[in-house]
Design brief:
Layout lengths: L15 E4 L5 H7 L6 E4 L9 H9 L5 E4 L13 H14 L3 E5 L2 E4 L2 E7 L5 H18 L4 E3 L14 H12 L2 E5 H11 L3 H6 L6 E6 L3 E2 L4 E2 L8 H14 L4 E3 L8 H27 L1
Parallel strand pairs: 1-2, 1-12, 2-3, 3-4, 4-7, 7-8, 8-9, 9-12
Antiparallel strand pairs: 5-6, 10-11
Helix pairs in contact: 1-2, 4-5, 8-9
């Protein structure tokens, strides 16, 4: 597959990968397309056996894997679920992922869980809560985790920091890595009217360990992060700026709704690979000129 020629030092090549979804299990294993790596939603593999783990174990022999969580609720005022952390630790032991990530959001309160990744107010109080939970998760798992910026459709009156300063401060206080979702930056920048390029400049380069790309939709009033379409051209343009700033960072094509044929995901990953290669070459030429 040619995936291991340029590792980032943590087992994931500085190439584009795709999310592993059940309709593609068999075809991926039979064809082993030329993609850099795979990412799975951790919670879908907390089971003791069955088809998901069967295929993950076999694909793990051919591709580096990243675990991406959606249910830890790092920003909740509730305590972290010890059961959830135990299940995640067991999966980490089994899969030996190169990267483990979660969202900078909340999805539970009073013991009730929701299916949405809800945004946080960008305040000192929220910083204290989410940093405490990230530290607890990293201590329990015995490793660094990455946290991902989420898209949002409203802003809190309590926020007194720009989102990029909030994300950077979380990384500085906890030592966690940043999973920078470029589509989420673009969606929120349009919805809230901030400069997406300014966002990128506010993120510390040393902490960015992974990038996400996805498609979005417009509901007539704002952009919605749907993960159900090809990456939009303005997001590709912002991704070029991100690669110019952060270098060759492993990049994932996310697609979770209206899942297309595997060939479409492989094609999107190839487009990201070309940008990674072209942007780095342009930077080298600029330095040599």
């Amino acid at each position: 597959m040619g995936a291991c020629e340029s590792m980032n030092g943590h087992g994931i090549p500085a190439r584009a990968g795709i999310g592993l979804r059940p309709p593609h299990y068999r075809q991926l294993l039979d064809e082993l397309p030329d993609i850099g790596w795979l990412e799975v939603h951790s919670e879908n593999y907390f089971c003791e056996g069955g088809q998901p783990l069967y295929f993950l174990d076999r694909l793990r022999r051919h591709y580096p894997v990243s675990l991406h969580g959606v249910g830890l609720s790092l920003g909740s005022t509730d305590a972290l679920s010890r059961e959830h952390l135990t299940n995640l630790a067991r999966l980490i032991d089994r899969v030996e992922p190169a990267l483990v990530s979660e969202h900078l959001s909340w999805s539970s309160v009073g013991g009730r869980f929701y299916n949405d990744l809800l945004p946080l107010p960008h305040s000192e109080q929220a910083l204290a809560v989410v940093c405490r939970h990230i530290n607890q998760a990293q201590e329990f798992l015995g490793r660094q985790i990455l946290v991902e910026n989420v898209s949002s459709y409203l802003q809190f009156a309590e926020s007194n920091l720009p989102e990029w300063e909030f994300v950077a401060e979380v990384a500085r206080r906890t030592g966690c890595g940043i999973l920078l979702d470029v589509n989420n930056v673009y969606v929120s920048s349009v919805n809230h009217g901030f400069d997406a390029a300014r966002y990128l400049r506010g993120i510390p380069t040393a902490h960015v360990r992974e990038i996400h790309l996805a498609g979005h939709d417009h509901n007539g009033r704002c952009l919605i992060d749907t993960h159900g379409a090809r990456v939009a051209e303005p997001v590709w343009a912002l991704y070029r700026e991100a690669v110019a700033r952060f270098g060759r960072v492993p990049t994932l094509i996310e697609w979770d709704t209206d899942l297309p044929p595997l060939a479409v995901l492989v094609d999107e990953a190839a487009a990201a690979d070309r940008i990674l290669a072209d942007t780095i070459m342009e930077n080298r030429h600029a330095l040599a000129a």
